[in-house]
Amino acid sequence: MSPLQTPIHSGFGAASTAMEVLAGIDLSGKTAIVTGGYSGIGTETTRALRAKGARVVVPARDTAKAEATLAGMDVEIAAMDLADPASIDAFAERFLASSAPLHLLINSAGVMACPLARDARGYEMQFATNHLGHFQLAARLWPALRRAGGARVVALSSLGHRYAPVDFDDPNFERRDYDRWIAYGQSKTANALFAVDLDARGKAHGVRAFSVHPGRIATDLARHMSTEELQKIGALDEQGRPIADLARGMKNPEQGAATSVWAATSPQLDGFGGVYCEDCDIAVLAEDAEQTAPGSASLSAGVRPWAVDPAAAERLWTLSEQLTGVAFPFA
Question: What domains lie within the chain, and their CATH numbers?
């Protein structure tokens, strides 16, 4: 485990908002790509980065929805579907053709607890979308990340990583019964492990990577959950309205975007990388913690060892290259 996986007492916390952690930071001349930047906390991430002067590009599977949501924000929207490798390549090729540097890549898009579905390659949809799609996107955008002369990649993990480590023997549920929460947990562990190994490989090239738990926020990410399920975990009140109550671990979208933005921009993290962050700080390592029951509303803090294990991260990297047929052009 990284010796850096310990809080630095940033001065921010669960109540901090994206704009608060960006106070005094000027992003003029910087370019950011925010996947999922037109939904939930992704929208607030986009809004905050743009307000501080960054050029923001939002790849979108539903461009009409993106245009409606982001109207008036002066951001760029481009078609891309994380479950479609050809779509990822096409988006990256268009971006690279401009020769622009990429300073910030924030992988905010995702799917949660969906029924069993597979992409065109036969891969389980949560693992394919949340992890493999972002792995391929970062690989294709690598020349632009290097060109920045100091870039950061932020992978949105979740407390859901506590539900399951990556099953390297059967990541796509071909031989085991499908459990939507185990699948989600595996994909969120994969997001954290991706940041561990990308940072290890990328820091010599000026690219640092972080994973973050944004907090528990009632957004469209929970579209596959029933009202009863969301009420059980405290995300909705009795009238079906979203709850924002820090005492119960529930944030609003502005607070939910804060840790992503902090990890992407804060000078407090200069010299750091490969760590899992929550509440605008580096999270504690919960060394003795066990897996959490799928769908649990547990509020225990910290990152589980299997999500920041360098050996598991390297193993996942090799598996990801095999499954996608894509390798980072580090040379």
Answer: 18-323 (3.40.50.720)
